[in-house]
Known about the structure:
Order of helices and strands of chain B: HHHHHHHHHHH
Structural class of chain B: mainly alpha
Strand content of chain B: under 5%
Order of helices and strands of chain A: HHHHHHHHHHH
Helix content of chain B: over 70%
Number of strands of chain B: 0
Radius of gyration of chain B: 24 Å
Oligomer: heterodimer
Low-confidence stretches of chain A: 279-283
Number of strands of chain A: 0
Shape of chain B: flat
Distance between the termini of chain B: 17 Å
Largest interface: A-B, 45 and 56 residues
Mean pLDDT of chain A: 83
Amino acid sequence: MMAVIAMLLQRFVESRVVRVTTLLLLLTAAVALIGPWLSPHSYRAADFDARLLPPAFENFRLFGTDSLGRDLFVRTMSGTRVTLAVALVASLVSLVIGVVYGAVAGYLGGRIDSLMMRLVDALYALPFIFFVILLMVTFERNFLLIFVAIGAINWLDMARIVRGQTLALKEREFVAAARLTGVSTPRIIARHITPNLLGVVVVYLTLTVPQAILIESFLSFLGLGVQEPRTSLGALVENGVAHMEQAPWVLLLPAAMLAFILYCFNFLGDGLRDLIDPREPDE
Amino acid sequence: MQKTGAIRFALFRLLAAVPTLLLVIAIAFTMVRLAPGGPFDDERRLPPEIRDNVERYYHLDEPLPVQFGRYLAGLARGDLGPSYRYRDRDVDELIAATLPATLALGLLAMLLALAVGMPAGIAAALHHGGLRDRLLSGIAISGISLPVFVFAPVLVLFFAVWGGWLPASFSGSSGPARYLLPVVALALPQVAYIMRLMRASMLEVLASDYVRTARAQGLPTRRIVTRHALKPALLPLLSYMGPAIAGVLTGSVVVEQIFGVPGLGRLFVTGAENRDYTLVLGIVIFYAALVIVLNLLVDILYGFLDPRIRQR
């Protein structure tokens, strides 16, 4: 286990893309955590004398204010927090489901495997986002539900990848040794298969996070996600669209933040995948 | 012999699609019916007898399985039931009225995405590792990273609000120019995915033995690509068409909202805001059926084109 982590860390440092994007993301998270605390303004206090102020250094209005006179810098930072938190938790949910499902299908093999993967194939064909919207409509807009809903969509890719990896792993000697010494099947999956999936899982987790961010901000954009006065980057973009003619920064600054985070995650995921799985044919 | 294999494969896929569709309907239906509170709860307090009448009219007083059976029977006749909000309209009427706009935008966006994404992917593969490849791959990652609801308003800001060249609203104008911004916004992510896929599969084909043989014979690159490499490289793209269609439908929800297109996506969001259960349920089932049927068509086409797949 430790050896795997050490190996991953070493590879981490070797790739420049991975290094730079990791650093940028950590920096973003730090600013989002500390920023609101440094600012004299609150994310929810409306000030009708200070509506749609343009960005300025004066009075710490770095991003200006929104249509209710709320400080946009603090709101963008707290929206970033919410977006990142939702995405991380949702990805962990999908990680758990995907790893368990994929490892069980791959290890058991045979008929159970093909049945389980058929189900995944069938689920792939569904436009899940519409079910999430249905879920958001029928049940009250519950913050927790967003995590679960997004996690429940995103596990399919993870399950496929984990299954493929498990198929290869179960032929290895240490698994055969465990089986011969009478270790039970659940224990083999939990103690011998899963730890060795770590590398691949981490890589695909970095690709799941931006997907989760996209879904969360999509829902919030439609007004079905995070509810006022709390905010997320998607909700901020939605608010910005309504006022972009008089105050383009209300749209552009949160939108830039969202795009920046998604860029970083996508570059990071691509970089990590190239490290682990250099599939591109070299010429 | 080969033909019958493909037909058997097609029949098998067709049979497999039926339970999927039934499952979708059952899940969506139960989700709506299990929701806390009935559809008429948030209205002005209705006197109990009127409320009972309303519920009887919509058959809400029957046990759930009976309601489900009634709904299925209606579906089989193409009847999705009445809308809870637009009292005098049926859900199928509403869908039929809004579908043309969504289909037109979606079709145009798919055509645009293919027309731009395929050549760009081939170009990137042919200049593998070069400046053009890196430039195109950079653009592709932008297309994947920029959500439609960020890209679309920025397009409006630049081309409609500041530039004034194109109309910002679809319903507020006429003529073909109003299609331009929504279609571009819808197509962007698909351009990116198609470009990446095309590049990857082209690279794989270009590295294969028969392409090397063609090269050794001294055929020009252009001819190798068009005559030998293109067809096999297009197969993975075909299997991406299913997810692409689902992606365009998802995008249309946002794009229609931003540009004010009187389409299915906007109807869906309005229904969601109004908590119009039957409408939302009907549209979800319609979307799911559409995606399943289109996926089925893609699968069947794939079965005819690629004999390897039928072995499964």
